[in-house]
Amino acid sequence: MDDYPQALERLIDALQTLPTVGPKSAARLAFHILQAPTSEVEALASSLLETRERIHPCPTCFHLTDLEICSICSDPRRDATILCVVGQPKDAFAIERTREFRGKYHILQGLINPIEGITAERLRVRELHQRVREEPIREVILATDPTVSGEATALYLNRELEDLVQVTRLASGVAVGSDLEYTDEVTLGRALRGRRAL
Ligand SMILES: [Zn+2]
To answer: How many CB atoms lie within 10 A of CB 120?
Structure first.
């Protein structure tokens, strides 16, 4: 390894823990940070910490928020009878970008994955059950990724919920094996409009 000063080495190591950042990109970012104006670096450092301190999961839907209850849960104009269930906050952000959905969300905080030992008990399924029983929900849209884990999760939730509420799944059009996050808004919007019963 190159003989970087220790502090620089630590910065490069830290940057490499970020997704998609390999050793070369990490070094490039570190040298950029070294040459950037102090004010810029301070703004970056404080926004990293501030994000961690202020952003937390909404206690109702588990979407990310810096408020006590997220702005979607507390918005009286959103349709409280339709609940869209997704794996991660990034999926809810993707669906919001389509501007096709006016209901509320429930974030599972993961998807069922037996290989990685992620079972339904480790997800926010109990909380989903409780919401379906206690809130005036008429329809649950299962909008988990069209991957093996996403499909397994959707099948599981359908079995769990079908006696309590109408359950629908995003229509095909979202490519199998892809992440919702990277599906373009038009395709995702169409999949949402064309949702079907399982
Ligand atoms: Zn919420």
So the answer is: 18
65 alpha carbon – ligand 1 mean position (Å): 8
DSSP helix, strand, coil percent of the chain (3-state; round to 5): 45, 15, 40
Q: Which helix (H) or strand (E) holds 13?
A: helix 6-16
Contact 83, 106 (CB under 8 A): yes
The rounded Cα 63 to chain-centroid distance in angstroms is 7
Q: Give the span between the Cα atoms of 54 and 162, in whole angstroms.
A: 37
Give one DSSP letter per residue of 83-116, joined into a string.
Answer: EEEESSHHHHHHHHHHT---SEEEE-SS--BGGG
Distance 63 CA to ligand 1 centre (A): 5
Residue 184, pLDDT > 60, answer: yes
pLDDT one-digit tens code per residue, 98-147? 999 999 999 999 999 989 999 999 999 999 999 999 999 999 999 999 88
- How many angstroms does the Cα of residue 127 sit away from the middle of ligand 1? 12
Written as six digits, the tokens of 14 are 């830290």
Check residue 175 and report its DSSP letter: P
φ, ψ for residue 115, nearest 5 deg: -65, -40
d(CA 166, CA 157): 12
Q: What dihedral angle (degrees, nearest 10) is formed by the CA atoms of 191, 183, 65, 46?
A: -170
Instruction: Give yes or no for residue 1 having a pLDDT over 60.
Output: no
